[in-house]
């Protein structure tokens, strides 16, 4: 990280200061200057401001390595308030702790909130120290939240004839807006008065609490009334006047689901109102006059600022010189001018600047100018052009930069000659490469920018570019810090649409980027990017960087508004670096063992083919669906055949063959079963045995899969090229394939697998005391379920009863129907319905939870995980019954799959640092749904296993304990 002390007097320090100063200055200057004699109290939501500054500013450290970016933004803001007379009274209000009267009333209130980022933790105390050093009143009280203290001081100050400005964007504070009290959104730099509150909630400030009580708030675990969102809540409160009147009239409401929800959850609504209503009668920690603005004690403030290295603030407060030599003073003047321009100049609409007219950078002088421009901005859109889609084999062909909407360039690095002019050919001259900066010179010029911690690099699908830069052949650069527009979009709208750059550009910018095929050609005529003429390459490549930066300007501010900022900052953005390192590491594969497995599979397939031919009565191509259909339905006259409307051929997919196989013990059923066995072996051999052989990197003998981060609608990762997440785990063939994944000499593989995590999330989310009790006691959950729903004594539960309970336990999470359960268990649909009815009768909380999820999806278009991620369900309103039923099943399953994905991701972002801090050398290699695979030195197995289990089991707090099973072995099969 960049130290921002001015003893070093680095350009990086100036850039960090200018970027921070722009935001801090804008926050202060948006508060009106207080005329002499007027009473104006400015209340700064300190806790909210800390997080905002931390996420808005690039990482910075003071000389001893302590992170201080949030502290720096905070001191800039305070100095502006004091120097420019913004308020006659000023106080910064903090949360004193997590335990308040609300958590005593409702233990689940804010219980699932994640811990703050490790880089932010040491800054909490420094910000309180900064407040005291500036002589500003610091307000906090045990048992109350900062919002309560803001409410109490605002009420008292207005009663005494003053005016109040609350510096915060927290929606919970909007209930305080009234004559004499306004808010200032420090992100959008605009005041929040009654009109803005009505726009947000659909009701005036006095009724905001009632709307919030109905809608609830998953971010804070405020329950609300299931199925009622802000819009519906506003309509109801407008119609009935207030919450109690609504609840009194709830039995008369015509809509049955809404009526039932309100009647059954009336007490939850009342509890929710108590949770969200701010206590303006909270006892004040200091009298009003103690908040009067007064000059700071110079020696105290100077010492604090010097320790942090904040020379620019020292200079502004008249306590020191901002620079020590002429060169540094000149740089600081430029920084100040840039900061001032940022603070007072409105930012351009990202969609208004024209696309195109980009620059091709072919000289070192031109490149240096672009680098200086990016450094001054503190922000740059970044993209790479390569000759391969495989990041770990791709050669860097060019780099694109964008410093503002419509302002971008392309830096060609390895373009080659694409042909020679006729005159050159006649002269027998070799074609020359186009003009470009020598690769090493360009990379060394760019390296400081790409690693500068005070300049934020904005990318789309950042993991690919980071891996490209990491390759020694491409400079071996660890680019940081980064933002990823793909993951910003995914954090807010998983399942709602795709998150590729082209789709996002059309959706948010109304602009369709130049297609790749238009630049490189298609089919046999396609050329690699290093052969694309520079004019075409620049138009295409620079546009990518331009679009990416524009998307960032539009999408990043929405994260807080959509309640997805913590998810992105603490999980998705950190996953980029974690997965980059996992993909670079790869996992070792024993090629000789794979060859043996392939030979064995081939022999077994040959034997199965002979059996199939005997059952069919003649030889045929087993791999031909057409020939198989003719034998089954034309020659053997088996029932159940269906012809394709398009081709007229018989269908022979897995579902058809399974129906035939279940039809009896005749030769046709035996033929279908044997073909299914042959197909399974054929798929395993082609996909995994042959596919893995081809994927082994000859340089290290390892396979490097690609984890797709923004594909699954549930937040789960997927794995491609090769797919290592779909190897069957419960079959002997799948175990054989896992046997080929091995550890390096002196190491073992370690598998850490969450046990029944989706069922634990079901017990957490639904009101099912029996399941919670079983998990807390460590009981066999399937045996306990069997005993409950079949009314058996615990010691009378046999294997069949347990099997049925296990099938329904997992099936219920996927919205399984009675017909589906009957098919799984080989029973009649009536019997399957009886089991499901018994299950719901025993566990009514599960049925209620499922109905609530479907209703939430219908009303909102999405459901939420226990951790606040929105999972969109686009087909929930489809007119087609089949699509709508599928969407309802997805709405039921999404919070469990999505919740499980969230848990393991949170563990993944914590484990590398935890291992490093413990001095352990284990490497995380794979994530397969609920399982993590590590390569561990043999001497460190015990401490590594202990630490991995501790981190994974403690990463979130649920109503039931998490459990992790850890195993080790020379191969993946042995470890799992």
Shape: globular
Structural class designation: alpha/beta
CATH classification class of the domain at 11-204 and 276-291: Alpha Beta
Helix content class: 40-55%
InterPro entries: 3'-5'_exonuclease_dom, 5-3_exonucl_a-hlix_arch_N, 5-3_exonuclease, 5-3_exonuclease_C_sf, DNA-dir_DNA_pol_A_CS, DNA-dir_DNA_pol_A_palm_dom, DNA/RNA_pol_sf, DNA_polI_H3TH
Pfam families: 5_3_exonuc, 5_3_exonuc_N, DNA_pol_A, DNA_pol_A_exo1
Family: Belongs to the DNA polymerase type-A family.
Function: In addition to polymerase activity, this DNA polymerase exhibits 3'-5' and 5'-3' exonuclease activity.
Salient structural properties:
single chain; 976 residues; Rossmann fold; Taq DNA Polymerase, Chain T, domain 4; 6-stranded mixed β-sheet; 40 helices; globular
